[in-house]
Amino acid sequence: MNIIIRHEISAKYPTLRNPFYTPQGATSLREGMEAWQGYYQSARPTMGKMMINIDLSATTFYEGGPLIQMVAKILGLRSPNDLRRGLSDMERQKVEKGIKNLRINDNHRPENKRKFKIEKLTQTSASDTMLDVDNSNKINVETYFQNKYRRLLYPFLPCIIARKNIHLPIEICDVIPEQRYMRKLDRDLSDKMTNFARQNPTIRANRIQTGLNILNYQNNEYLKQFGIEVSNNMAVVNARILPTPTIQYHQSSRESCVRPNCGSWNLRDKKVINGAILSSWSVLAFLSYKDLPDQAIKLFVRELITTCQDTGMNISERDPPICRANPIGDTKESLQKAWLKARDKAWGAKPQLILCILPNTGLYLYAEIKRISDTVIGIATQCIQSKHTNKPVKQYCANVCLKMNIKLGGENSFLIPEHIQFLVDEPTILMGASVTHPLSGNNEGPSYAALCSSVNVKASCYAASIRVQSHTDILTDLANMVKESLKTFYQACGLKPKKILFYRNGVSKSQFMYVLESELAAIKYACQSLEADYRPTITFVVIQKRHHTRFFPIEKKNADKSGNCLPGTVVDMDITHPFEFDFYLLSHAGLHGTSRPTYYQVLYDENGFDANRLQTLSYNLCHTYVRCTRAVSLVPPVYYARLAATRARLYSFSFCNTDTESSEGVAINFGAVKELQKVMYYI
């Protein structure tokens, strides 16, 4: 069916498997690139009928047209006229990098346009690049074109080198339209693409309808030949809104129990369940005194301490030592000095935390801090951006406080027992698993697997087990990871889990059975390797966020202030699988654009879950994410596993340009976490 519905549209528009893209409404981004609106279509089996899932898509294309204009845009110039001064060597390299592998055609012979792929630029200008004519005479490109075709306007620019050592002046080349930009977007371009693709629910629904009109299924000859008819209207489906759970804070709080309003709440008048004690710590600023004076740091630290105290933490060291470091200097030495200063200030007590103030959002410095603190020194670090220290905001300090408390071994909150009945009836361990691969288009470097599992009955804290592995969606060492998790649970609360609820993230539908067979066997093997007759009941649930199903509330009373469906909206009929145990759950409140529900499919269940019981438990758990006071879109064990796998990527020395083994993409130098395994250091 997908082949049939795609066939006609793929002849008219650029198509990338299921999505197709149109130039209508394209937005110029930067350096000769533009964002195109696209439409996704895919046939799906549902209850009683086949349906077509249609949604918006967006991607980046090169702008078609004169190559000379693209060169000007790459260099940030207003027009090609600004190129008359020629290119410096650095500018030439930037242009070459930007246009390499671009497909072009020449325009100096309109009756015989040829297509080429750019390989590189000449080191010299057209006027200085020499050609062999008839293997005897040498002539420069400028003179050759003037004699044979026309006078060049930009002879001072380099030439394109294409196949068979063909030299073409930039000004006679046109970029062939509809070429997709395949490289990784930088942060600026990524933000621009996100803003382009983000649509509020009303606009998104209208644009999907526009896409349906472009598809024009009613007049599609191929659909008619197969006897397929497609409705012109979106499907109206039945949904339920699950009740909001109650969150428990410390009994001494003015408001110890809170029921979130539309997916969020705040820390005002609340104290964490178990506040950590912080008696030995220091501040490490990667900025000069001129950029961030000590007085500004002290003002921020004072506000942070006050907020932490109000929230139930005990900060006995209220004047931590302040250290300075060069952001491009020796990060390891800087962190060790901060560690020593904290120890000296606390009369020899072991330091617990280093508060790092960063000058920007650059990844390299952050990665080095985490790699060294987690795997070399063995101390928790809390990174903040310097812009937040100038005028301390209470809400920001509260969010930092939540993370600090967890990293120091505290607990923030938990759900009242009635709302996690499945967990408290019998000892139950929650597990979340995720695998992260190298970025798209980059096959270098290994994949990282993480398993995060609860360590207490109320599932308020989680331990992480991480592995580096070759490129596969299967957790290759899952048996040992599960064994570690079961031991940690037993050591923490003295109980053997009788039930395992295993949430698995990042698996495509085509891999469901393969993953289930491999990983379920690994879980069972781990249990029986601890004790031959140890057989806890297992439920294996796959979670997907990368899908194109979207919900639009029909009535205003069922919408939040962003126009999205209310948190707790669950759909388990009409558009779900005809016979498999699956559902869509929208557990979070929308902030921007159209909210994406999370898809859950139960692949194996020995715990006798009915739909409502698993949906309600999953929704309630989404209110226990420790980093914020909002319900999140994924159940926390999976969220934490993603964070831990992402953190694991920073531990590989390959990230920091050191020697690694390239065979099968597995790094040799992978730092193990030191002294932090019992706390949620990856938060």
From TrEMBL:
GO terms for molecular function: RNA binding. SUPFAM superfamilies: PAZ domain, Ribonuclease H-like. Residues 353-649 form the Piwi domain. Residues 66-177 form the PAZ domain. InterPro entries: ArgoL1, ArgoL2, Argonaute_Mid_dom, PAZ_dom, PAZ_dom_sf, Piwi, Piwi_ago-like, RNaseH-like_sf. This is Piwi-domain-containing protein.
